[in-house]
Design goal:
- This protein is α/β, with parallel strands linked by helices.
- It has two domains: 117 residues, Urease, subunit C, domain 1, CATH 2.30.40.10; 299 residues, TIM Barrel.
- It contains 15 helices and 18 strands.
- It is globular.
- Bound molecules: zinc ion.
- Zinc ion binds next to loops.
């Protein structure tokens, strides 16, 4: 049993309480009680005690769309001229980088950003993986990093036609195999989804094959949707339908499916997403960096579509994603009052609901029965922090770099900025060696 106490607790449960001198009790991986430190210490005198020293205690953050495999791109020079379009970014960077990844690259390139997640207080990620020259077993290598480090992850292999039918079939097989592994193991730390790259690289035959392969597995699809304008043009050329309509016609959408981005969708497509109860994931930094446009997430949420928040591999830090989402939609709407309600709903409510649908567990709230995923943030508010204004403190005052302690299921992964499960210096040194080789092969 573990108590994390003497802190300013932000519960993020239904009432979003703020408890001064608060504490959280974790037993067998789950939260048993949340309350005042003195009372809790009295009730559980034998429990191990982590003293938050007045810092903020809150639930671990969730990243609803991540690409662990993008690690070695940092600082890498492109060999072609700079991309002018989104398709050129894919062709000149990502579809070349993913082909260079060998088995150890997959493991190390997963472990590096997982370390970053722990340091930023991100305790659950939904990842989308690609390594076309090392498909079989690649999700196991990512899972090995996840389990060693101690976070929670949903993993999926992005099936695509772009590297030929043999590799496509390996991707399908990898998803099915890994989903079955997760369902057999029933680990609360691992989840398997059926990954699809994007409709632009998926033929009708492939989509049919994937839906067939996923039948009976009771999982959703994790797929990029209408990220760039080219995706829409391509869907119209292939099928006469827009992206969401084409995917819907194959039965890809549903309450466990993650439709990533949805930048270039119209009202009719929003209605379909709503009708299918499909989860959309917004990645503001990625959309801005790739210059693909502004996803109409406020409109979607107004219509009742569930929109979560991710980073698309741009960063591991969800505090950063919150800040960028906040500014992006104010600027896009030319309205400084825009997105005040929507961004906290994405990060704190919708991400939690998405994880509940996939893993069947409650994360992202400090309340009895929820997962024992807790972080301590070294933030000493210089104005009152209350249940009415905590979001403003999260937005303007906190960042991943201030996370001091990260706990998943009661297991301490970082304490006073010191990692306990992973030797980051060794992993980073190996990463630099492997990255050097990847850059030569790239
Ligand atoms: Zn992505």
């Amino acid at each position: 049993m573990l108590i994390v106490g003497n802190g300013l607790v932000i519960t993020l449960d239904a009432e979003s309480k703020v408890i001064k001198d608060g504490a959280v009790v974790i037993e067998d991986g789950n939260i048993r009680e949340v309350g005042d430190t003195a009372g809790i210490k009295e009730r559980y005198p034998e429990a191990e005690f982590i003293d938050a020293q007045g810092k903020v205690i809150m639930p671990g953050m969730i990243n609803a769309h991540m690409h662990l495999y993008s690690t070695f791109a940092r600082g890498m020079a492109l060999k072609d001229s700079p991309p002018r379009t989104f398709m050129q970014i894919l062709e000149r960077l990502w579809w070349k980088l993913d082909k260079t990844l060998e088995q150890e690259d997959v493991y190390i390139s997963a472990m590096v950003p997982i370390i970053d997640c722990i340091r930023c207080g991100v305790t659950t990620i939904l990842d989308h993986h690609a390594s076309p020259m090392s498909v079989p077993g690649s999700l196991d290598l990512c899972a090995k990093a996840v389990l060693e480090a101690g976070i929670r992850a949903s993993l999926a292999y992005e099936v695509s036609d772009r590297d030929g039918l043999e590799i496509r079939d390996q991707g399908i097989e990898e998803n099915v195999r890994f989903i079955k592994r997760c369902q057999e193991e029933k680990s609360p730390f691992l989840h398997g989804m059926f990954g699809l790259h994007a409709q632009v690289t998926l033929s009708d035959e492939t989509l049919r094959k994937c839906v067939e392969a996923a039948e009976g597995l009771d999982v959703g699809f994790h797929i990029h949707v209408a990220e760039g304008p080219e995706d829409v043009e391509d869907a119209l050329n292939k099928s006469g339908m827009r992206v969401v309509e084409r995917l819907d016609s194959f039965g890809i959408l549903g309450p466990k499916t993650l439709a990533i981005h949805c930048v270039h969708i119209n009202e009719a497509e929003m209605e379909i997403l709503k009708a299918r109860d499909t989860n959309v994931v917004h990645n503001p930094e990625s959309n801005m960096g790739n210059a693909v446009g502004v996803a109409p997430v406020l409109e979607m949420m107004e219509k009742g579509v569930r929109v979560g928040l991710g980073t698309d591999g741009y960063t591991a830090d969800m505090f950063e994603s919150v800040k960028v989402a906040n500014m992006l939609h104010k600027l896009a709407q030319k309205n400084p009052s825009a997105a005040w309600a929507e961004v906290p709903k994405m990060i704190f409510e919708n991400n939690r609901e998405i994880v509940r649908r996939l893993f069947g567990i409650k994360v992202g709230a400090l309340e009895p029965g929820a997962a024992g995923d807790v972080i301590i943030v070294d933030y000493d508010p210089w104005t009152p922090l209350t249940s009415d204004n905590y979001y403003s403190h999260v937005l303007f005052g906190m960042s991943g770099g201030l996370v001091d302690t990260t706990i998943v299921a009661g297991r301490v992964l970082m304490r006073n900025r010191q990692l306990t499960t992973v030797d980051s210096e060794r992993i980073h040194a190996r990463s630099r060696e492997l990255a050097g080789r990847v850059w030569i092969r790239f």
